[in-house]
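Changelog-adjacent note: as of this version, every example in the card shows the full chain rather than a window. The one below runs 84 residues end to end.
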Amino acid sequence: MGAPQQETVVFGTSKALYAAYGAGIVSDPTLQSTPQPGSGAWTNAATPTALTQGPAQAAVTSDTKNNFIVLANYTGGLWRFVEP
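Full-length structure tokens:
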């Protein structure tokens, strides 16, 4: 992932905070997370190999049982992530 100050998309759920770098065609699609309230260590979330560039936008929703994250990625389409 880019330098710590270079995250372009930062968002959160009731369980975790997430950050990813996705600016332009040269980017690292790695999605990192830390448990809420953001005081834990940052770890890499599983990223599909087909996802070659990071996100431009993120949306988060919940059905009261699960959190759903949808990322719009540069040249990678939409990626839906169901938070464990």
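Structural remarks: The chain has a mean pLDDT of 78.
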